[in-house]
Amino acid sequence: MMSSVKYKVVLVTIVTFLILTTGAFIFQIYRKSAQYEAQISELSAQLDLIQENMGLIERSVLHKTTEITNRVETVFSQQRKNIENVRLLLDDVKILRPKDWLLAEVHYLVRLTEKKLFFEHDVISAIRLMESADQRIAALDDLGLVFLREAISDDILKLKQVSPIDRHSLVLSLINLQKKVDNLPLINYTLLSDALESKETALQDTKGWQSHLKTSLKDFLKIFFTFKTYSGDSIPLLSRQTHIYVKENIKSKIETAINSVYAQQNEIYITSLNVVAKWSLISFEQQDSAVMEFNKLLDELTEQSLLFEYPEKLQTSNIISDVVADRFYTPISVKDNQ
């Protein structure tokens, strides 16, 4: 009996322990499950927030991408239009004005003309250069450049009205005049050889000893004294060395006149030749034919003036500059930008 009761007590104890253990286990499982559910809910909320943010980011990226794509397409479209306009302009140049490069040559010729005219005072070369420029314009066969040809024609006409000086011919004449100086006879000078020749002629004369004596005396005196008549102011006699200096001074003054021709110094030119004329009058035998020819040429050269008037500016200069700037340097305008 007692064994049966103990058995039951033990059995009840075991069952109770099992029930308590099972309850505790179930309670732990329930508590853990609640914690897991809370964590899952929290993670689910975070996931929803992340998904929402991702959606915002995706929409923002899509908007930016669309905006950038539109801008790129706009720029590409603009560039295609620009390229097309440039191609059309190049086609126009090739088809309508294939010889416009001649304008650059005309521009250079006009600039060279100004240099020849204003710096070198070479009117003849300036006229030839302007005529060459006119030929280049004619080769263009462009009715739009008629006003340019008219300006060139006006400038050529003004240049032809200028009386140019042939400087090379003038210099050659001065050099020729300079070479004549050494052969001109001087006043108040007789060479010793001339006196000896007169003496020999007298000794050969057969008119008697009185004539020989008289002639010898005259020739002897001529060696030391020379008598010549001269109408005008009294001029001191000059030694042979002084005469040589006079000739060199005259040639030096002519050389100064030559240099003044190239330098376009009219006052120095006239002054130098006037000094030469004065020295010629007091130093050379004026009745000698060579001296007379020398003085005649000197007078002609003295009357030549180095001064001449030429246009202060070529009207073609500004016109050709504007035409070249318009055709070569004007920025290309793009059509249909909008």
What distinguishing features does this structure have?
4 domains; 11 helices; disordered C terminus; 338 residues; single chain
Descriptive notes:
The model is unreliable at 190-200 and 332-338 (pLDDT under 50). The radius of gyration is 59 Å and the shape is rod-shaped. It is built from 11 helices and no strands. It folds into 4 domains: 1-96; 101-163 and 312-329; 165-189 and 238-307; 192-225. It has helices spanning 2-96, 101-118, 123-140, 146-160, 167-180, 192-203, 209-224, 240-263, 266-283, 289-303, 315-329. The longest helix is centred in the first third of the chain and has 95 residues, at 2-96.
Helix content: over 70%
User: What percentage of the residues does DSSP assign to strands (E)?
Assistant: under 5%
Q: Evaluate the radius of gyration.
A: 59 Å
Oligomer: single chain
Unreliable stretches (pLDDT < 50, length at least 5) are 190-200, 332-338
Average pLDDT, rounded to a whole number, is 78
Total number of beta strands: 0
> Termini separation (Å)?
114 Å
Main beta-sheet strand count, sense and barrel state:
none
The SSE string, one letter per element, is HHHHHHHHHHH
Tally of domains: 4
Looking at the structure, what is the overall shape?
Answer: rod-shaped
Q: List the total number of helices.
A: 11
- Based on secondary structure, the structural category is mainly alpha
